[in-house]
Amino acid sequence: MAHTPERFLARDGRPLVLRPIAPDDAPRLADLCARLSPETLRLRFFSATRPRCDEARLRYLATVDFAARAAYVVCLEGDEAVRAVGRYETVVPHVAELALLVEDGFQRQGIGGRLLQRLICNAQTNGIAVFWAVVRPENRGMFRLLQSTGYPLRTGLAGPGEVEVFLDLGAATGA
Length: 175
Hints:
Low-confidence stretches: none
């Protein structure tokens, strides 16, 4: 299941495909970032400035082993443009940093939840027990999404305007 494309409908009825990221998605990741609003950039990258990713960085982001590093993308069915991406990367044994990014016109459509569930399944298969993320305190959508998993969630201050979030994937209470 972890590497099988999944077709589903967005809440508004658009047909979508969630699939594993592939190395040839690198330029599509750059295109995704170019389409983001300043607010989405600020909530995800903590700055309204578009992150600059050179070709080597994009290639790194699009090439994963699906064990210590995993990523999945969501596209409209029949269209190769990446509309959302979710990833994790192991930072210490059994703990991985989590990141989700959904294009503005596709937010609040159930896409982040699908990505997160796929990442959780893949992470648990690979012995990752905790997802860790740094989130802006006003990013209510991300907090709601993480809480909706049913897994225990711990938070703490990471710095000015930053909240550290720990999602315990080892708990048996996950939805």
